[in-house]
Amino acid sequence: MSSPPFKKERPLTRRSVLAAGAATAAALGASACSRVPTEDSGNGGDLLERLRALGVVRVGIAGEIPFGYIDKDGNLTGEAPELARVIFKRLGVGSVQPVPTEFGSLIPGLNSQQFDVVAAGMYVNKERCGQVIFADPDYQMLDSFVVRKGNPMGLRDYRDVVGKKAKFATGTGYAQIEYAVGAGVPEGDILIVPDQVAGLNAVESGRADVFAGTAVTTREVVRKSKKAEATEPFAPIVDGEPRIDGGAFAFRPTETRLRDAFNTELHKMRKSGELLRVLRPFGFTESEMTDLTAKELCAR
Questions:
Q1: What is the C-alpha to C-alpha distance for residues 105 and 14, in angstroms, rounded to an integer?
Q2: Which of 17, 54, 79, 182 is most exposed, with the fewest beta carbons within 10 Å of its own?
């Protein structure tokens, strides 16, 4: 029996953890599995003091380039881990230890103390704000499409996808699913792939006309492609208004002192321009710098 031309795939992860990440996690052994008690002290938590005493902070990552991942040599990198190294060093914590997991397991893993902080470029939204507390965003982000060279269907936003009945793909758990459905793309018609590399492959092979992701991931993934290109970034329309997302570090709700100390250093880096210098090697530009706050994003 022939399969439908555009079917929904069910990969295991949202942002696939690289194979090297799994190897690194295994090598970390018992130290990665140990848990630092973080019972609320009644005064904003005492995790920062505990981390200073240990000299290491465990960060949850989800294997998405360029946000937080293990590279081909088994090293932790990405915009969020590199920023974590800078800020936690200034807070008196000298080492950053990765704990790779699936994207959907980041918040449960944080709240069950499998790691201390989420360092995965996680978008701040109202639902997540009910489960964790966020630092202020370290970047803002528009959407963009991966399309075939020359953009033959003229796809520039989600309305174009609907109007031209384009075969639409995006990543597992991506915010772009919600934006596409909100614009009128039937959810059952969306091709779900593990990550932006799989999305590029889907477009290059013709299985999809368009792959939607963040502006930074699309422009990086097509850099060496001879068959595909990234469209100009755009703001999706949500409830009639343009939506600009922001990504940030997440903390357990009891750990307000750690979150506030992190924010203090982040704001210094924003003001001095150091934040862009840290993020630039991962494809971030001046247009991704932001003054958005977690409070603003949680209220939307």
A1: 10
A2: 182
The per-type count for the chain, helices as H runs and strands as E runs, is 13, 15
How is residue 286 written in tokens? 């001046």
Pairing state of beta strands 117-123 and 245-251? antiparallel
pLDDT for res 172: 85
Q: How many Å from the N-terminal Cα to the C-terminal Cα in the chain?
A: 46
Output the CA–CA distances (angstroms, integers) from residue 240 to 140, 182, 183, 196, 260, in the order listed.
20, 10, 10, 27, 33
Residue 100's closest CA among 85, 125, 80? 80
Q: Tokens for 55?
A: 């000299």
Q: Which two tokens stand for residue 248?
A: 């940030």
* 34: helix, strand or coil: coil
Other CB atoms within 10 A of residue 186 CB: 10
> Which positions ≥6 away from 71 have C-beta within 8 Å?
18, 20, 77
- Average pLDDT per block of 10 residues along the chain, 300 residues long: 37 37 39 40 85 98 90 94 98 96 93 97 95 98 98 98 98 91 97 94 98 94 96 95 96 98 98 98 95 96
Which residues sit opposite 193 in a β-bridge?
171
**CB within 8 Å of 290: residues ≥ 6 apart:** 137, 139, 140, 246
- Cα dihedral 252→298→124→191 (10° resolution): 120
Element (H, E) at 62: none
Q: Is there a contact between 98 and 78 (Cβ–Cβ < 8 Å)? A: no
Contacts of 74 (CB under 8 A, 6+ apart): 20, 23, 24, 27
User: Which string of DSSP letters, residue by residue, matches 223-242?
Assistant: TT-SSEEEPPPBPPEETTEE
